[in-house]
Amino acid sequence: MTKVAVLLANGFEEIEALTQVDVFRRAEIECDMIGLTSQQVVGSHDILVLADKVFDGDLSAYDMIVLPGGLPGASNLRDHNGLIRELQAAAQSDKYVAAICAAPIVLDRAGLLDGKNYTCFPDQEEEIKSGNHVEEIVVVDGNIITSRGAGTSLAFVYKLVDLLGGDGKALSERMVYNELFK
Predict the structure, then answer these.
(1) Rounded to 5, what percent of the chain is helix, strand, coil?
(2) CA gap 54, 148 in Å, rounded
(3) Considering only CA atoms, which of 27, 29, 56 is closest in space to residue 7?
(4) Separation of alpha carbons 130 and 109, rounded Å
(5) What pLDDT does 40 receive?
(6) Taking a C-beta distance cutoff of 8 angstroms, is the pair 4, 33 a contact?
(7) Alpha carbon distance 91, 175 (integer Å)
(8) What is the pLDDT of residue 130?
(9) Closest to 150 measured CA to CA, from 19, 7, 8
(10) pTM to 2 decimals?
């Protein structure tokens, strides 16, 4: 079965994290919320979330790792050396690594944006030293997927569902997302 890890560090953007978890579970894709340093994680808007697990230094069982943005959540992810090693290992194993909003700073530190197109929260690209920034809602470049922010969370996760072999379009229609564009 396909497995996804959504990493949560204190200060994460709640919409960007919980939207992903909700939609993956609706798509019947196994999804674990993994607290970076503890099971209780507080989002950037003071919402307390109880993660399913705590990061133990090994994400090899997952087919995709998703990094929500938010500050200081994305900075906390970026500054965790064990997570950086696991992201590098996942990318080298051709597993998907996805980041939204400010979280591409984590990919930059891990060296995963070298030679890649990416997007991020407006003006956040000024902190990113590698890769080629493009202004699109969702950017897929090989096994690296990025998106712009809280407002693009649904478009982001539907693309992630598709990449994992699900049907993001059908799911978006069941969730009435398609009505936004009529």
Answers:
(1) 35, 25, 40
(2) 27
(3) 56
(4) 9
(5) 98
(6) no
(7) 31
(8) 98
(9) 19
(10) 0.97
